[in-house]
Structure prediction request, 161 residues.
Amino acid sequence: MTKTSHEADVAFIQALAELLREHDLTELQVKREYGEDDSLDVRVSRSAPAPVAAATPMMAAAPVAAPAPTTAATDSPAEDPALHPGAVTSPMVGTAYLQAEPGSEPFVKLGSTVTEGQTLLIVEAMKTMNHIPAPRSGTVKRILVEDGAPVEFGAPLMIIE
Prediction:
């Protein structure tokens, strides 16, 4: 790679970082093609309070939909569900779907027993349906997103214990 190309790449990455800041985004991922066997993959991300703020309304929605776990969910309302050891977080920005298609049964329900690798939900990103597998076996204790809700990278989706 030439010095000019390197400087252009650095300027490109700085421009992406500026876009991230200007539009209050948490992540940008770009692939820049130079030729058949030459490309630059860039992922710029930052920690921001946005995912926590976005998770707060979704967290409040879960106890309304399921009255049984309300007392467990409100024992420590300030606790971030993303920090829970059983949290399943979104690996990407997209739209969460709890079922394969409208009108079908959800992949899991509150209290469902799941096995490692079982599909919990789908996150659609750029018209691609990404199945989110259970990272471990256990019981679904909380569902923190609604069907069709937008999710951020790293946002908590479910709690499995």
Observations:
- The two ends are 49 Å apart (CA to CA).
